[in-house]
Amino acid sequence: MAYVTLSKSSLEHNYSYLQNLFGEHDMDWAPVLKMLCGNKTFLDYILNLGEEQVCDARLGNLQIIKELHPEKETIYIKPPSKNSIKDIIQYADVSFNTEYITIKWLSEEAKRQNKIHRIIIMIELGDLREGIMGDHLIDFYQKVFELPNIEVAGIGANLNCLNGVMPSKDKLIQLSLYEQLIEAKFGKKIKGVSGGSSVMVPLLLKGQIPKGVNHFRIGETLFFGSDLFENSTIEGMKDDVFLLNSEIIEITEKPVVPYGRIENNPSGEKTEINEDDYGSTQKRAILDIGLLDISKVDFLFPTDKTLKFIGASSDMLVLDVSQSKKDYKIGDTISFKMTYMGALRVMNSKYIQKKLID
Q: Which UniProt keywords apply (predicted)?
């Protein structure tokens, strides 16, 4: 059976790297844990590493976090839906918001539960996902400020998650200026300016984060050491926190070119024949994972770099192992590093075991 491993030593290394980095700049950060998909073993381990705040975009995961570590401050990092309001107040100490009516519902439910719910008002900086337009901020804040049982914990922004718009020093200065504008207008201190996600880390390393931005939500760089500007691994960080391991269930020398009438496969793809391949063979290994688990082969990278993808169906993955120096056999395991989206899909699969190692 296929399984994914989480390396404690690699994760601790990355965690310490980020703690030191943000500590040196006197900035706060919160791990984004949606990658763990509510896995209690993985969550309990990382929750013991230290940070007081944690973020997730799934209420079921926040519920598990509160059950494991009720002392942790939980942040729900997307605008709440109407049907989730009761659970938001119960399991999220803070939520991201962009709609007045939603915050009004939160206010009413917080009053019923005798709680003060904290919100971060998200501002649009160009990626065109969640966020109110900046020229609406003053009127928006004025109305929110008057709601009972609601406290504005800060303002924030999100970049790079929908249209790939990258952050810049100028955009972050703009966000910081919105905070100053609110404070000047209402005489209210905005404690947190949440600049964004892992895409911000390279800017911090280059000293391009303006002073007013003091909070970040970090997931991908924590788990993969990612530099999202260079599509590389940040020097000094680890990229092997997660590994997918899959067993060989068939290994045979077969023709390169399929034979018979060819039409679209179940994924809607049609194999193109290279006439130069007629008569050629290759050693093919079939693994016990498929598109149901991984979504795309593009999300996987064999640790044996000589292996090449041939294709995948819903339940099986086919590799060309002809060039490998290793004599692979039935029952052997092949390991893969993954992209963020690949690991997220694998972690969400109930068909793949999860193991904490080291």
A: Isomerase
